[in-house]
Amino acid sequence: MKILHLDKNHPLLFEQLSQLGFQNDEDYTSSKEEVEAKINNYEGIVIRSRFDIDKTFLDAAKNLKFIARVGAGLESIDVEYAESKNITLIAAPEGNRNAVGEHALGMLLLLFNNLKQADSELKQGLWNREANRGTELDGKTVGIIGYGNMGKAFAKKLRGFEVEVLCYDIKENVGDQNAKQVTLEELQEKTDVLSLHIPWTEATDKMVNASFISKFKKPFWLLNTARGKCVVTTDLVQALKSGKILGAGLDVLEYEKGSFESLFTGNDLPEALQELMKMDNVLLSPHIAGWTVESKEKLAQVIVDKIKQLYGFGDDEKKILPPKEYGVSGLGGFFFKTKDPDHIKAWYKEHLGMNTDQYGWTFWWKDKEGNDCSTQWSPFKEDTNYFAPSEKPYMMNLRVKDLHKLLNQLKEEGVTVVGEVEEFSYGKFGWILDPEGNKLELWEPNDRAFL
Ligand SMILES: NC(=O)c1ccc[n+]([C@@H]2O[C@H](COP(=O)([O-])OP(=O)(O)OC[C@H]3O[C@@H](n4cnc5c(N)ncnc54)[C@H](O)[C@@H]3O)[C@@H](O)[C@H]2O)c1
Questions:
Q1: Which residues are catalytic?
Q2: CATH number of 98-288
Q3: Where does the VOC domain start and stop, copy by copy (predicted)?
Q4: CA nearest to 85, candidates 54, 119, 103, 58
């Protein structure tokens, strides 16, 4: 299996892929056409953004099985065409999302506290306190557009600041404990700080333009760590001049090259950019939000792990496995609080024929392999604290295949685990909280104990 590396990345990529038996070739200088001439010899490529992977390239790549992009977005690849050729696309947003979250927060704090201005003035011998009086985040509303890997990472960083975090996304139900999903209109009505975390698509190209900006009710701050072309820079400059936009932190620019390797190709700096450069309330960085010492390594590791997964290499304990291997396999039970459990049980027995015992009722069923499985229905007395810390009057119990493995994974994912695992003749139990604080009981059952 031969892999062609088209950009220089962390050495672990080479090392680990070689250990797995892949042949790794590197070519960091050939033109796209030169690479096209030899690409049919390769089953995998690893690329950052050196050139676009278009139809011509994909037609030449007759034996390609995967394209691994050492970064987050896939916009430099003709995704649809690649997928039509059964080429697996691998990206590594898990590797740089923390970096982007921290960078966006850093930009925000720098802007709010006039640190760039204060620092450069002081270095010129100026001691300007009043002119550099800061603004506090406390009590502000941060609006995030695009609530995927990067948007979520930024929202996570905002925990601990007393801010309301709203998100808008074209996907439904992406909001979580760190951001409330709202309509675009609501976000535009309430936002003090807007942070973009969308991919560059037809719909997001030039999204932040004069008309979009005018729909915000309050003057706001803008952060863009997504893609430069999502913002119309001339309109941004106008809004900064009019005071509708209070300041901007831009890690990406409309004028940077597709490879992100340099600013632009023309001879003169675009006028809007020249204006931005003169503004004290504008902070610019050269597409480095996801570019940290740590992310270089993490991006490479994520790529290796995903290639390993693609080729079915060993079950590394740390690797996230498909949950079917040890995750939820069914509903283990439904527990709910009642004023009088005995009375309720009698009522269900009389009217619905449910044969209750001291625990409630056991539903018996068989799984696909024909094993006996059970699900409990159990009324609990209303003063029970078994569902604590949840205050809800019910608790779900989920059947799981390997409680310890699942709990280890959940801990790594930052899920709140409540208490310690307990073991009984009828199985092992562990408890977690979902994002709304509902307590879930995880049960690795021994159904035979009920027979
Ligand atoms: N500056 C950097 O160094 C850096 C690093 C990493 C990622 N990025 C950029 O950040 C952006 C987000 O990356 P990600 O990994 O979080 O992507 P993602 O796919 O995980 O999340 C993007 C989210 O945006 C949503 N979305 C798409 N179109 C939308 C629209 N028109 N309106 C509202 N929501 C929309 C998607 O539904 C998705 O939930 C990309 O542009 C990526 O290239 C920049």
A1: 227, 256, 287
A2: 3.40.50.720
A3: 330-445
A4: 58
